[in-house]
Amino acid sequence: MASSKTITVEVDDVSYTDDVEPRLLLVQYLRERLGKTGTLIGCDTTNCGACTVHLDGVSVKSCTMFAVQADGHSVTTIEGLARDGKLAPLQQAFHQCHALQCGFCTPGMIMQSASLLTENPHPTEQEIRDGLEGNLCRCTGYQNIVAAVQAAADGTVSADGTVSADSDEAETAGVA
Amino acid sequence: MIPSAFDYAAPTTVAEALGVLADAGDDVKVLAGGQSLIPVMKLRLADPAMVVDLGRIGELSGVRDDGDALLIGAMTTHHQIATDPLIVEHVPLLAQAAATVADPQVRHRGTFGGALVHADPAGDMPAPVLAADATFILAGPNGERRVAAADFFQGYFTTAVDDGEILTHIRVPKYTGWGSHYEKFTRVAQQWSIVAVAAMVRVEGGTIAEARIGLTNMASTPLRATAVEQALAGAPLTAEAIATASAHAAEGSDPASDLNGDAAYRRHLAEVLTKRAVIAAAGL
């Protein structure tokens, strides 16, 4: 019987200390122990990106990491992006640009997009597509997802979620 | 999918890690970034009794200047390799290849050393490291030993790393001023290489003075395309000369046949991709 380990992890600005089995995956810890079901399990094989969270600010696939590896680190999930009841700009952009259909891929798409924009605040369309290569949308709604990331990067999404009219990308996305 | 239960140790120094490995017996796996090992454990293709996580050994991470070479820690991530200024300046081939590994999330976790010790024939880092004549630095119970890249890769998922040993650093000679390119062929984004070619060339005037070519997934180990290297040495810097030399790319290879392509197709790919890689590396 493998012994459990005590871990302390900061998740969405709250510190948690728990005993976990070493084999417990980070995504299972987030969903089943902390109740943070905003992070989804899609393929469970490191392909689809639905489980993407940030570890110390950079994107990782939480189905391909053990919870014990997060001991002493900081995790941000989709549930930690909104501030004071207001959606983050990327969340507003996904809403405004109709960047989701069934919505299953959306938490991972937004977390990966946030990581992409941290590394490259003004990506080209191709750089956005390359940056999202590890996230699959089975509705194949990529066009509006890319437009949403572009709108968030361009700052053409306002605090109330409206897209300003002088952005070609946002206009296109808005009517799609 | 949930792996089998295992005991877990997270040492903070190489010496401590070697001690844990020595005590752990045979049924142990070393965990680097986990982007290959964890999926394999979830499928229960591996079910070690003990996992030794190197993720908390700070001395194994990072890139530093070591005179005529760069000393790269085994736990340096693919993302770091792809963006590190020293690597981009002195061995850009490594950065170019690392940028093609899997996807951004995997590159944030997956490590240079982990990928090299995993030694997947379709993995992208072994061929550039072989082409660059890197040296592998291993720590073990009897101290440190060094293994040349040509001796490191021994077969499918098999390297010179013995039980009880850890790859700590990779010493990669500088190729400052050389042109380089990693040409990878996949069917879809985010796939392992069906075939890929790592090329470095040193151009003098209108001539290719020297070339180093590594092949990914053309045998159970990465290969040097030595016949192409010899044909390119002293060749004029023209697309015709490069095409002629690249026709030798599959010589001495032994590619697998699988659902992505049979061996004859891979040999054809090796020639085409070598031509493209050398043309791009030479800046034509």
Describe the structure.
The complex is a heterodimer of chains A (176) and B (284). Chain A is α+β, with helices and mostly antiparallel strands and 176 residues long. Chain A has six helices and five strands; from the N terminus they run E-E-H-E-E-E-H-H-H-H-H. The C terminus of chain A is likely disordered. Chain B is α+β, with helices and mostly antiparallel strands. Chain B folds into three domains: 47 residues, 2-Layer Sandwich (Uridine Diphospho-n-acetylenolpyruvylglucosamine Reductase, domain 2), CATH 3.30.43; 111 residues, Uridine Diphospho-n-acetylenolpyruvylglucosamine Reductase, domain 3, CATH 3.30.465.10; 103 residues, CO dehydrogenase flavoprotein, C-terminal domain (Enolase-like, domain 1). A five-stranded antiparallel sheet of chain B has the order 4-5-10-6-7, sandwiched between helices. In chain B, strands 11, 12, 13, 14 and 15 form a five-stranded antiparallel sheet that branches. In chain B, strands 1-3-2 form a three-stranded parallel sheet, covered by helices on one side. The relative contact order of chain B is 0.12. The model of chain B has no long low-confidence stretch (mean pLDDT 97). Classes of the chains: A alpha+beta (176), B alpha+beta (284). At the A-B interface, strand 4 and helix 3 of A face helix 2 and helix 6 of B.
Look at the helices and sheets of chain B and give the structural class.
alpha+beta
Return the domain count of chain B.
3
Structural class by SSE content of chain A: alpha+beta
What would you call the quaternary organization? Answer: heterodimer
Helix content range of chain B:
25-40%
Task: Let me know the average pLDDT of chain B.
Answer: 97
Low-confidence stretches of chain B: none
Separation of the first and last Cα atoms of chain A: 55 Å
Low-confidence stretches of chain A: 165-176
CATH class identity of the largest domain in chain B = Alpha Beta
Q: What spatial form of chain B do the alpha-carbon principal axes imply? A: globular
Alpha-carbon Rg of chain A, integer: 17 Å
Rg value of chain B: 19 Å
Beta fraction of the residues of chain B? 25-35%
Question: In percent, how much strand structure appears in the residues of chain A?
Answer: 5-15%
Q: How confident is the prediction overall: mean pLDDT of chain A? A: 91
Sheet of most strands of chain A: 5 strands, mixed
Number of helices of chain A: 6
- Residue share in helices of chain A? 25-40%
What would CATH call the architecture of the largest domain in chain B?
Answer: 2-Layer Sandwich
